[in-house]
Amino acid sequence: MKYDRYQFKAMLKNTIKPIVSTAVDVQGLEDMYNLCCIITESEDDFRQKPFFVLYIETISPLIHSKLVLEKIKFAAKKCIPTIYTNAANSGATSPVTLAGTISLGAAEYLSGMVIAQLLKKGTPVIGGGTLFAMDMSTGVASYGSTENYLMDAAMTEVCKFFGLPVFSLAGCSSSKTFDGQATLESMFGTMSAALSGANLIHDVGYLEDGLCGSF
Question: Which CATH number does the domain housing residue 120 bear?
Fold first, then answer.
């Protein structure tokens, strides 16, 4: 699969904003990094002012896959800022209680942070959010649930306690269209992320639990 290179190229050509993106594997990440260095004209210039943040996830509960570790190793070597988070789904891949899911999420992020620092001290890593509550009727991770934003806000507090930068969700909904439900859920999520003080807020414009996105 090489779709990651094409979507990354499209973002580079159409925005001057910092980019958060995934990579299928370490080869894809290397290609994306090379594109960044072409734009900045050198690796040193990219290190001085990186505009790309790599998003990678653990596999809940408590698994750091070989694929993920290969990517964090490359990112550490090249000083690519990384969001090292999870997508723990309360009641499915994590405990059904909110406190249990928050604890699991913190353990996964902090262990990833330690791995990154062991690879290269000072590796820029952002962690935190994307803790979900499973919709018991469908089994999907509900983007619009109140539990989602409560856990993200709590994870922000955990990261602040440790003095670490934190990623959080906002502006997304479980609704399939931009209606009253989408408005209410997006508003509550954005307000919660802002009031909790998350450092990097993402996923704005997602509908249908992340299946639809808005440019």
Answer: 3.20.20.480
Tokens standing for 71?
């990517």
Q: How far from the centroid of its chain's Cα atoms is residue 17's Cα?
A: 17
> What range does the domain containing 57 cover?
3-210
Is 192 inside a domain boundary? yes
Is a pLDDT exceeding 80 seen at residue 46? yes
25/21 Cα distance (integer angstroms): 12
The helices-and-strands tally (H runs, E runs) of the chain is: 7, 9
In a domain, 215, yes or no: no
pLDDT in tens, 76-91: 999 999 999 988 999 9
pTM for the predicted model, two decimal places: 0.90
Q: Is residue 88 part of a domain?
A: yes
Burial zone of 123 (CB within 10 Å; 0-12 exposed, 13-18 middle, 19+ buried): buried
Q: Residue 153: count other Cβ atoms within 10 Å of its Cβ.
A: 20
